[in-house]
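Re: Re: ligand-bound prediction request (bumping)

Still looking for help on this. To restate: I need the protein modeled with ribulose-5-phosphate bound, output as structure tokens. Inputs repeated here so nobody has to scroll up.
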Amino acid sequence: MWYCSQGTGEDYPHEVSDNMQERNAASGNTGKQAAGEAAAWMVDDGSVIGLGTGSTTAYAIKAIGRRIDEGLDVLAVVTSYQSEMLAIEAGIPLTTLAEHPELDIAIDGADQVDADLNVIKGGGAAHTREKVVAFSSEQFVVVVDDSKMKEKLDHFVPIEVLPYAKDLVMRCVRELGGEPQLRLASRKDGPVITDNGNFVIDASFGVIENVEALAISLSMCPGVVEHGIFTDVTDMVLIGNTDGSVTRLDTLI
Ligand SMILES: O=C(CO)[C@H](O)[C@H](O)COP(=O)(O)O
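Reply:
Sorry for the wait, this slipped through. Here it is.
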């Protein structure tokens, strides 16, 4: 269950909303920027935060960096080399899960979100660390543009696998009714190698009727390091719309 609220200027602090629509429209990435920047305002002073990966989260990271310039005091755990580089560039002090195993809030993008706030992640092959960070956080906030919202999930599911187990995992996926495809690199010959040194298999299942059952079945296949289905962890989704407004979906407890 979730409830929904929508706003433009009034719902978010001045700095996010002021001229937000104009700036976002100019960038050509309106929804992602609106959602990412709105999430940056969810971060409290003195908190330890998790930073996801991807182009939408990048807007949040840059906006948190601007808040730090104005005095915000935070420490961040990153989920990938990409978020590490962006956080360093934005001037965000870093820490680790070993030093801070419990995070206050994590902000991350998604490839698709359904009406029950189930999420598919891993378009950037970072979902393993992203899932660890999400489950280590008191609050997990997902930031997406409105094209990512679906009544039922039908996006392919990224699965990080041990290279040694590639063929077994492909067989598991087929037995579960899916069509597996090894993700290939675009600027290198051969497969994508994750930040953890593994392969990624993208598995298409069409419309996923039972998200939790599929998530459990995929986890049970030997050689699966982690798959991109996130259930029962998302507390809030901030959806950036093409006009620069942001719609908020919260879980009801
Ligand atoms: O899961 C992810 C990385 O593994 C990303 O958060 C997801 O792919 C969304 O990316 P973007 O914000 O660039 O659309």
